[in-house]
Amino acid sequence: MECGTEVATTEFRPSYRRAAFMQVSLALLGFVCSIIAWVAEGNWAWLLGGVLLVGVIPFTLVVIRSTNNQLLDPALDKKSEQARQLLLKWGRLHAVRTIMSLLSLAVFLYLIIQR
Fold first, then answer.
1. Cα(first)–Cα(last) distance of the chain, in Å?
2. What domain range includes position 95?
3. Please, are residues 72 and 13 in contact by the beta-carbon 8 Å criterion?
4. How confident is the model at residue 40 (pLDDT cuts 50, 70, 90)?
5. Where does residue 80 fall: left (phi above 0), alpha (psi -120 to 50 degrees), or beta otherwise?
6. Of 40, 25, 50, whose CA–CA distance to 105 is shortest?
7. pTM of full prediction above 0.85
8. Pairs from 71-74 (Cβ < 8 Å, separation ≥ 24)
9. Which band of pLDDT confidence, cut at 50, 70 and 90, is reported for residue 91?
10. At what angle do helices 5-41 and 44-54 cross, to 10 degrees?
11. Is the pLDDT at 2 greater than 80, yes or no?
């Protein structure tokens, strides 16, 4: 947002498309790996970390999707106050995903350190 609403809105579109594929792929891979670790070790915390990690997908689809769609709408005036408010809202919602991912990482690191 430091570069201004118009630039941030313009950059959102291509960044979103690249990031969406990467986020889903990595969350699913991490979840599968957590299930494997849970089955191998029997420690439920592996499953907890995996659920936190994969939880970003339904959170995105249910909570953030509407904001994403509005930001991706070609009719959105990139210089408008509406665009600025959408970007700020998206930032707050994205922070929730970041916290979920960091909690997952904390669980995984704890499990690794406890070995």
1. 43
2. 5-113
3. yes
4. very high
5. beta
6. 50
7. yes
8. 71/9, 71/12, 71/13, 71/16, 72/12, 72/13, 72/16
9. very high
10. 160
11. no
